[in-house]
Design a protein that fits this description.
CATH topology: Hypothetical Protein Aq_1857, Chain: A
Structural class: alpha/beta
Low-confidence stretches: none
Number of helices: 2
Strand order of the largest sheet: 1-5-6-3-4-10-9
Number of strands: 10
Oligomer: single chain
Length: 116
């Protein structure tokens, strides 16, 4: 299995997201797990983020260790998220993990989709 090690130039996890991710992984009994971020077609702007907790990377994934957590991204999705930051908000209306993506030319009002 080939896994590439990436760095924070691909994606940087900010403190709020790092804390929440560590808590979620520990609650699920997989403290060595990672957050998988994928970009898939859909949403009101054409592309949207898909996030899942995983035990380990898949073949050809890029693993980024940042702020004491691991994020894994497939090579195709990496083209869209390069330079992004991941944060977390407890806000009742717009809470959850949020990606700030410098490559997004258009984002929708819901904050869940974008176009590049």
């Amino acid at each position: 299995m080939k896994i590439t090690e990436g760095n924070e130039k691909l994606i940087k996890v900010l403190d709020g997201a790092s804390d929440k991710l560590r808590n979620l992984l520990e609650m699920q009994g997989r403290p060595e797990g990672a957050l998988r971020i994928a970009v898939v077609g859909g949403g009101c702007s054409g592309l949207q983020y898909q996030m899942d907790l995983v035990d380990e990377p898949k073949n050809r994934d890029i693993r980024v260790k940042t702020n004491d957590v691991s994020v894994v991204i497939d090579p195709k999705s990496a083209l869209f998220v390069s330079g992004s930051e991941l944060d977390y908000s407890d806000d009742l209306q717009q809470g959850g993990f949020k990606v700030t993506n410098p490559n997004a030319s258009v984002t929708c009002s819901c904050g869940e989709s974008f176009s590049a």
